[in-house]
């Protein structure tokens, strides 16, 4: 996070967190919900100011419960995730993956295909979904342990079955499995539609 943000947190540590104002869509676009109703699944308004977007990207993180947030100075703004915490994009040669915030992926520990053939990854920077336009390119770069093409094998992959695949973005082979979309947040350890953390109940004196 930016030093100025860390300084603001230290100076005003008790600023209440908020939820319902931001979402991240499946294309990696930040959306503002001016009515605070992101939990109701509305599309929101795209944020286009490049300076604001860069600030948000640099100050994006998560808590121990897997709730992702934008740290707006001293205030934490929880984010509704329409797909995953990160949207992953491929380089021209498919050997590089990068998050929507501009972080390079150094390793992939596991791959997942959901019911709609969307591709997800557990990476060293966090869980992400491969952008729809890049799925075919990323899958085409995968290879089975015997060097065969993983794309055709993945198309026939049944739920519960596992393929061991290699991809240039991974340091080693990684499992590829099919999983229902609804199971992904739990499997990857994130909260898709976070509310505010519950306040501790004070005992009566």
Q: What brief labels describe this structure?
A:
205 residues; alpha+beta; duf1285 like fold; eight-stranded mixed β-sheet; 5 helices; DUF2944; DUF2946 domain-containing protein
Provide an overview of this structure.
The protein is α+β, with helices and mostly antiparallel strands. The protein folds into two domains: 3-81, duf1285 like fold, CATH 3.10.540.10; 86-187, no CATH class. The protein is 18% helix and 31% strand. An eight-stranded mixed beta sheet has the order 8-7-11-10-9-14-13-12. Strands 3-2-1-6-5-4 form a six-stranded mixed beta sheet. This is DUF2946 domain-containing protein. Pfam families: DUF2944.
Write the layout of secondary structure elements.
Elements: H1 3-11, E1 18-24, E2 30-32, E3 45-46, H2 50-58, E4 60-62, E5 68-72, E6 75-81, E7 86-90, E8 97-99, E9 108-113, E10 119-123, E11 126-130, H3 135-141, E12 143-144, H4 150-155, E13 162-166, E14 174-178, H5 184-188
Parallel strand pairs: 1-6, 7-11, 9-14
Antiparallel strand pairs: 1-2, 2-3, 4-5, 5-6, 7-8, 9-10, 10-11, 12-13, 13-14
